[in-house]
């Protein structure tokens, strides 16, 4: 039997060595994580549809993204996400191979290689002051320096070489005081015209030599009443603008160097009262568009200088820019939205009376109205012109229309997520199987044979791809029912487009999407914006017949005093159950830990006058709130003036039973001459703490100071409030505070000399970790503060515990002065940080990991033990057994600890963590321009087997052990028999 035991142990060791490690293998990609790439709302587009090469469209978006999209399928060829402050002004294509982008108010010009998106050159243009940005690329641009790119920005006109980005010449208009509105370069001309105004009352035009930037001619003429908006060019000699009162259309003509001015009243053109007239920027040859509150008028400028209204269309019609065709002809498109349809028509400028093309396309009403349209032409087999249209919808989605059909669509509203929450999926009904058996017995056997070959490493690359496909198809991660581990959930996301999406956590597909009616633009709500997203109704086991819902809070304007709107949305269907507003303003939303009999959670909405509004507005909610109102507190941070204020409930408002007045309980004032608030962080309301006691070395016990009312506040000296390097180390001071928001008492205060922000922090349990920049060391730092309750220290006396003289049952109150102690430590960190979060689990037992969003748009998981303030250079044996690591001055960056693996979450803005039902696992959702989701087990999956556990290998090992035991038993019996015959 000894031989049998040895052989069994050998086989067990071999099998354990073959089990996959914690790292992610190539065939595991897509099982626990998914990654989605977006670009955002398109604001400008340039088509590249030459016969040679792939047909593509280059776009710039409101998320500061420049991207090249495949015209056939809408996929991203390449993409670059510029910085948050590097706003793209203009894009164009030069030489048929370069994408030219102008950004940062005309101060940065870049050229990108069209096929692969690699940067070719970059030019920094230093202007005198900020101004409008203009970009002009000659139509006949050739590979020489005689046809440069012209850029206006910072009150300066530049001629830039298209080969290497070198500045050939520069003309500064700061001395002339002119604001340039148009750059006009006629084909084949050696003169560029700069057209603009001086002091909004004088029209100026400069003729500038293309080769050296010299001024050839300057003509100007004063306006009697000034102008409104920009000047629009009708041709190289005619321009139109509105006067300052917006009641007169000014036609400016240049003939033989002389400027003539013709005035026409708007009322004479459209024959009636019109409100808010505005000239649209679409450049049509000899025609301009005038929009009012009710319609859009197309007005033609005759050779004699007269204005004739050619047609009026509804104001909801969207007009495209002009598209140059052959023989000097121009085309433009009109789009009008109907009931679940859009009507597209293309017209020629020289023939406005008829439609060159007219199509009707069915459109999902949840996409909203059309916001922008870009058109492109192609030549059909009969040599006639066909057109394709790129449509930008109200929900920021992008569609390509061609021949009356939607060729492809992209939901790019998901590039601008504002807030995230989660919802449970429905419970699978007993006796009903949602699985569908589609494979025959032969296919089932074939699949298992392939998996066996993959296990034994005998599969070919093609067979490995088939195995991967079978795994994805057989996975239950995309089922629309909840699982016992809590991995399958709905991610409810609110976007900047005021659209609500429900994403399945299994593979990220869109379950439903709703364009919120309460946040649609209207006369009552002219500038709607989304604010917050909160769980509203979470049915428990006794009310599973009801669907969960979420509360969406929005605002009709940009100021804090703007009226707000409320919507309650069913998370299973995406339908708005009800909406309220516009009503009172909303500055802060406070979810309360109370719910009524229908499982609706109570919420407080604080308006700009510090009045409290209770929702849901029901008698039962009022009764619950009045019982608990003495224990309801909140705080407000006035960062501009450096004041923290704490509030409580005072009494009801007059005339509204659901409104309560607030009373000011405390205030903390930071002197404006010495401190400025730059960051505040509080604990998550749903965080679970497993135990208050922390057992340290030598079996000693420390008690965590656990309070949901702690606020982390970071302040800097006024000189250090700018970007890094704006102040010297001696002028910089970073001070962090831990404040009790019930009493306003400052529990702890720490100063960092020679340091400044930005500060990113996370507060969890009894500790806070924050990231900042140390000017003296020229490095980023990460500090940790842990706070402990000294009033519980007597509980460590076992004798007092036996005789009952302990204070474990003493009520904890924020009004009693806490006896606290703190431990802190600082470490160098090599990365700049965009966001910090922390893992959260169902019971709070699993160890914590910090999730750090780096400047490289990746998420790094850092074990909390690395930022333990009790680390020392030479830990004792007891401290080592506790798990304390030796002290180092720098936090390690382990490549295998990147949660996002090789992916990037471009434009990373936030990291959300959701506890699963399985204690070992937390769900991580990172969002920016891209979306990324994964499952993370900070302490490994100690309570379950992973989905990729090799059951086949385990079965083979068991079979081999049984066979080995049987064989060795037979051999042992035979040996014993032989020994007995001796």
UniProtKB/TrEMBL annotation:
It holds the Pfam family Beta-prop_EMC1_N. The keyword Signal applies. InterPro entries: Beta-prop_EMC1_1st (IPR058545), EMC1 (IPR026895), EMC1_C (IPR011678), Quinoprotein_ADH-like_sf (IPR011047), WD40/YVTN_repeat-like_dom_sf (IPR015943). PANTHER family: ER MEMBRANE PROTEIN COMPLEX SUBUNIT 1. Residues 1-23 form the signal peptide. Residues 764-981 form the ER membrane protein complex subunit 1 C-terminal domain. Belongs to the EMC1 family. Keywords: Endoplasmic reticulum, Glycoprotein, Membrane, Signal, Transmembrane, Transmembrane helix. Component of the ER membrane protein complex (EMC). It comes from Lactuca virosa. It is a single-pass type I membrane protein. The lineage of its organism: Eukaryota, Viridiplantae, Streptophyta, Embryophyta, Tracheophyta. It is found in: Endoplasmic reticulum membrane. This is ER membrane protein complex subunit 1. Residues 24-412 form the EMC1 first beta-propeller domain. Gene3D superfamilies: YVTN repeat-like/Quinoprotein amine dehydrogenase. One of its GO terms (cellular component) is EMC complex. The chain crosses the membrane at residues 949-972. One of its GO terms (biological process) is protein folding in endoplasmic reticulum.
């Amino acid at each position: 039997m000894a031989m049998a035991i040895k052989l069994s142990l050998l086989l067990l060791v071999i099998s354990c060595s073959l089990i996959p490690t914690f790292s992610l293998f190539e065939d595991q990609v897509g099982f626990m994580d998914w990654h989605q790439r977006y670009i955002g709302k398109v604001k400008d587009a340039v088509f590249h549809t030459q016969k040679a090469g792939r047909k593509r469209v280059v776009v710039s978006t409101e998320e500061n993204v420049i991207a090249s999209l495949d015209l056939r399928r809408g996929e991203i060829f390449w993409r670059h996400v510029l910085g948050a402050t590097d706003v793209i002004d203009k894009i164009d294509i030069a030489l048929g191979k370069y994408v030219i982008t102008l950004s940062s108010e005309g101060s940065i010009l870049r050229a990108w290689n069209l096929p692969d998106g690699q940067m070719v050159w970059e030019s920094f243009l230093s202007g005198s002051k900020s101004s409008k940005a203009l970009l002009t690329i000659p139509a006949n641009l050739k590979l020489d320096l005689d046809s440069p790119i012209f850029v206006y920005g910072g009150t300066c006109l530049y001629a830039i070489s298209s080969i290497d980005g070198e500045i050939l010449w520069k003309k500064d208009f700061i001395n002339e005081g002119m604001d340039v509105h148009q750059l006009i370069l006629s084909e084949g001309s050696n003169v560029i015209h700069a057209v603009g105004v001086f002091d909004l009352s004088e029209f100026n035009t400069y003729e500038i030599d293309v080769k050296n930037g010299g001024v050839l001619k300057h003509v100007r003429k004063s306006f009697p009443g000034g102008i409104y908006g920009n000047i629009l060019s009708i041709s190289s000699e005619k321009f139109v603008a509105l006067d300052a009162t917006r009641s007169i259309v000014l036609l400016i003509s240049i003939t033989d160097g002389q400027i003539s001015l013709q005035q026409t009243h708007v009322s004479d053109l459209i024959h009636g009262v019109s409100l808010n007239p505005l000239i649209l920027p679409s450049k049509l040859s000899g025609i301009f568009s005038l929009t009012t509150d009710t319609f859009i008028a197309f007005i033609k400028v005759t050779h004699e200088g007269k204005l004739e209204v050619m047609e009026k269309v509804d104001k909801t019609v969207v007009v495209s820019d002009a598209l140059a065709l052959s023989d000097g002809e121009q085309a433009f498109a009109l789009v009008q939205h109907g009931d679940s349809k859009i009507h597209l028509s293309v017209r020629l400028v020289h023939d406005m009376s008829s439609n060159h093309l007219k199509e009707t396309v069915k459109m999902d009403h949840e996409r909203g109205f059309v916001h922008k349209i870009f058109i492109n032409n192609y030549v059909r087999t009969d040599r006639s012109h066909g057109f394709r249209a790129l449509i930008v919808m109200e929900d920021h989605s992008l569609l390509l229309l061609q021949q009356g059909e939607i060729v492809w669509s992209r939901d790019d509203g998901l590039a601008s997520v504002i807030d995230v929450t989660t919802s449970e999926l429905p419970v699978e009904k007993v006796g009903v199987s949602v699985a569908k058996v589609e494979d025959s017995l032969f296919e089932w056997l074939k699949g298992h044979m392939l998996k066996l070959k993959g296990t034994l490493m005998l599969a070919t690359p093609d067979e490995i791809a088939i195995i991967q496909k079978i795994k994805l198809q057989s996975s239950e991660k995309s089922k629309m029912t909840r699982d016992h581990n809590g991995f399958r959930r709905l991610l409810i996301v609110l976007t900047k487009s005021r659209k609500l999406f429900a994403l399945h956590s299994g593979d990220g597909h869109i379950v439903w999407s709703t364009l919120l009616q309460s946040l649609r633009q209207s006369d009552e709500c002219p500038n709607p914006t989304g604010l917050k997203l909160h769980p509203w109704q979470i049915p428990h086991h006794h009310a599973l017949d009801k669907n969960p819902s979420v509360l969406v809070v929005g605002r009709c304007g940009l100021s804090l005093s703007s009226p707000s709107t409320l919507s309650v949305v069913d998370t299973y269907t995406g339908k708005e159950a009800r909406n309220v507003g516009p009503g009172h303003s909303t500055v802060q939303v406070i979810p309360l830990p109370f719910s009524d009999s229908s499982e609706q959670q109570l919420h407080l909405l604080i308006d700009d006058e510090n009045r409290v509004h209770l929702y849901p507005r029901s008698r039962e909610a009022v009764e619950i709130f009045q019982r608990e109102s003495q224990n309801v507190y909140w705080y407000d941070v006035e960062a501009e003036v450096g004041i923290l204020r704490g509030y409580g409930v005072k009494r009801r408002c007059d005339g509204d039973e659901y409104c309560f007045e607030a009373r000011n309980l405390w205030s903390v004032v930071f002197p404006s001459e010495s401190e400025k608030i730059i960051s505040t962080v509080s604990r998550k309301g749903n965080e679970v703490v497993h135990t208050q006691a922390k057992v340290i070395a030598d079996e000693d016990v420390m008690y965590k100071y656990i309070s949901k009312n702690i606020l982390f506040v970071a302040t800097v000296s006024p000189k250090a409030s700018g970007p890094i390097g704006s102040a010297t180390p001696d002028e910089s001071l970073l001070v962090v505070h831990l404040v009790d928001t019930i009493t306003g008492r400052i529990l702890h205060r720490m100063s960092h000399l020679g340091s400044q922000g930005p500060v990113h922090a996370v507060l969890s349990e009894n500790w806070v970790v924050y990231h900042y920049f140390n000017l003296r060391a020229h490095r980023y730092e990460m500090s940790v503060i842990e706070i402990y309750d000294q009033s519980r220290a007597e509980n460590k006396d076992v004798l007092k515990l036996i005789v009952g003289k302990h204070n474990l049952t003493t009520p904890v109150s924020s009004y009693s002065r806490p006896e606290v102690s703190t431990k802190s430590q600082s470490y160098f960190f090599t990365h700049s940080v965009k966001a910090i979060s922390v893992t959260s689990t169902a019971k709070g037992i699993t160890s914590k990991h910090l999730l750090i969003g780096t400047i490289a748009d990746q998420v790094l998981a850092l074990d909390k033990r690395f930022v333990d303030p009790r680390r020392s250079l030479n830990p004792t044996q007891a401290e080592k057994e506790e798990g304390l690591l030796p002290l180092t001055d720098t936090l390690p960056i382990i490549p295998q600890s990147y949660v996002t693996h090789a992916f990037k979450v471009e434009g990373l803005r936030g990291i959300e963590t959701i506890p699963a039902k399985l204690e070992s696992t937390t769900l991580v959702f990172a969002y920016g321009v891209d979306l990324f989701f994964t499952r993370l087990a900070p302490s490994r999956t100690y309570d379950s087997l992973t989905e990729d556990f090799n059951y086949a290998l385990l079965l083979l090992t068991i079979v081999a052990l049984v066979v080995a035991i049987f064989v060795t038993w037979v051999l042992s019996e035979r040996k014993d028999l032989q020994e007995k015959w001796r």
